Each structure stands twice: as structure tokens, then as C-alpha cells.
Amino acid sequence: MGLASRFSFERAAYWPLNEIFGYHGMFNWPKVMTPDQIEARMRHATSYVTESAHYKEMRALMASHK
């Protein structure tokens, strides 16, 4: 496992999230943001964002945690 894994994550986090300061992809938002924080950001999203695969993946992850 590389040093970069200690600082950011893409699809999987190998370290506790409170030790990581960066992440890539909105599909990770539910791991680091509250639903209210996500909704606040999404109020400004364009169709380019809401029609993306990452957006759909994020929403599916949010729905699975309800």
C-alpha cells in the first residue's frame, strides 16, 4: 500500500477516514458529508453533474444507507 493511500482515497479507504484529508469523486460524498451538506451542494448542480454516472452512484449509495 502506497504512501498516497494515507492522504486520499478513490474507491476504497485503507485508513480511518479521520486520518485522510482528501478524496476523489462525488461517489465518496456520503462517506464524508451529511445528507444535508450533499443536498446543499446539489442545489447548484447542472444537468452535466446530475446526469453523470458518479452522481447516480452517489445517489444509489445514499439510498442503500437509508
Description:
- The protein has helices at 29-32, 35-42, 47-50, 53-64, and strands at 8-9, 22-23.
- It is mostly helical.
- It is elongated.
- The protein starts with 7 loop residues before the first strand and ends with a helix.
- It has a domain at 25-66.
- 42% of the residues lie in helices and 6% in strands.
- The protein has a two-stranded parallel ribbon with strand order 1-2.
- 8% of the residues are buried.
Biggest sheet character: 2 strands, parallel
Class from secondary-structure proportions: mainly alpha
Tell me the strand percentage band. 5-15%
Runs in which pLDDT lies below 50 for 5 or more consecutive residues are none
Shape: elongated
Distance between the termini: 32 Å
Q: Order the strands across the largest sheet as they lie in space.
A: 1-2
The number of helical segments is 4
Helix and strand arrangement:
Layout: E1 8-9, E2 22-23, H1 29-32, H2 35-42, H3 47-50, H4 53-64
Parallel strand pairs: 1-2
Structure in a nutshell:
With 66 residues, the protein is mostly helical.
Keywords:
4 helices; elongated; single chain; mainly alpha; two-stranded parallel ribbon; 66 residues
